[in-house]
Structure prediction request, 346 residues.
Amino acid sequence: QYLAQVTFAFIMLSMIFMLVPRMNVAIKRLSEVLDEEISVKDKTKTQKLPKTFDLTFENVSFAYPDSEEAVLENINFSVKQGETIAVIGGTGSGKSTIAKLIPRFYDVSKGKIKLGGVDIRDLKQSELHNLIGYVPQKANLFSGNIRENINYGSSKNLSDEEIIEALKIAQAWDFVQKLPEDLNEKVSQGGKNFSGGQKQRLSIARAIASKAPILIFDDSFSALDYKTDAKLRAELAIKTKSQTKFIVAQRVTSIMQADKIIVLDGGKIVGIGIHGELLKNNEIYREIASSQLSDEEIETQIKDFEKQKTISKTQKNTKKAVSVSKKIAKKSLKKVISKKSKKGEK
Ligand SMILES: Nc1ncnc2c1ncn2[C@@H]1O[C@H](COP(=O)(O)OP(=O)(O)OP(=O)(O)O)[C@@H](O)[C@H]1O
Ligand SMILES: [Mg+2]
Prediction:
């Protein structure tokens, strides 16, 4: 028994000798992280929140910290509040990077990002974050229950009705409803007890529940089947009309209805337009589309676009004609009136 105690003491001692250097490394790493200067800071004098939240990128270039190479170069676009803007492009083209610059996870290296005309660096970060519902490319759920996971990121406590409404829009209520504890169902660390598509939908519901005026979906529909993807987008269009939607996607069908599509290639914008327009004129977009759609579908969609264009042209012309004829009518009426009044004077 005595021998056992001595052996045990030796084992403990050797373990301590093994652990101390490891601990030293951990402490050193921790102090490095703590010492690292936070590059994104609030200015001492911040601006008031704007009234509307049109989003503008002005000549934005960006290189990651500690890297020389620019991953975004001269990015220019704007989107009005309530519109949907989509970004498509190959892997590594910089789509997620654009998305990350909007909530200021990083600051631009050159140029400006504006919300309602105000440079986002002039806003309080806490206020900026409240304006944005951000769904990262990799859904991040934490241990807790579904209610807590959806409520996270909202500035107030949401009612169950509000949470269910968000889950419904995100096409998640169907499966959540069927869980034994529905909203109280446990979520394990990282959401391991849910499938990829389920995690994505919970993460989407969280952003929707925040009711933030700007919603960012970074490749958030990729794990959804086509039908669910289509249903979700239809719901988004109805229920989040006044919110700006920024959608990063790989699938052309996910962004066909967007008000504006940005085609990104190697950190540069190589095309901006609507689906039919880009199909017709943009080689890279056409290439992406032809790997996902049949030739027949592409041809019909280009034809539809051209038809729509002539319709809107005639509509514009008709409007112009009406307004010109109204003006002429007004003028002649004025003439008649002035003549009559002159006669009256005599
Ligand atoms: N934290 C980082 N530090 C340094 N470089 C990075 C970092 N994150 C991304 N990059 C680089 O920036 C470029 C753009 O990456 P980004 O993630 O924006 O591409 P993406 O278009 O979203 O690609 P994917 O379709 O694969 O998601 C890539 O070359 C990538 O290696
Ligand atoms: Mg990405």
